[in-house]
Amino acid sequence: MAISPAYKLDVSWNEAANFIARFENTSTGINADGIAILINATTPGTGNHFIRFQKSGGAGIGSIDGNGSAVFLTQLPMQD
Predict the structure, then answer these.
(1) What pTM was estimated for this model as a whole?
(2) Could you count the other beta carbons within 10 Å of the beta carbon of residue 13?
């Protein structure tokens, strides 16, 4: 039975002691880059989440968000 992914890139894997994804630019050039994340808002607001960090169950524990004029890191208290 096929499972529809929740997002355009949706990776799921059981890995107990290592990361499940890595993006590598194999160029050795001095201008090589990694990952660019674009939100197409003229001024990213507080509802624009560039990256969201989640724990088991999907609860957010931090994020990199817009704030209307810049981008900032938010760390939420870890709760069990």
Answers:
(1) 0.66
(2) 8
Contact 54, 41 (CB under 8 A): no
Residue 48 token pair: 């624009």
Half-sphere exposure of 69 (CA within 13 A, CB side): 0
Q: Rounded distance, CA 75 to CA 52, Å?
A: 10
* 31-51 pLDDT per residue, tens: 999 988 888 888 888 888 888
Angle formed at CA 14 by CA 9 and CA 18, multiple of 5 degrees: 90
Six token digits for residue 12: 């799921």
Tokens coding 21:
């994804």
Residues 6+ positions from 19 with CB-CB distance below 8 Å? none
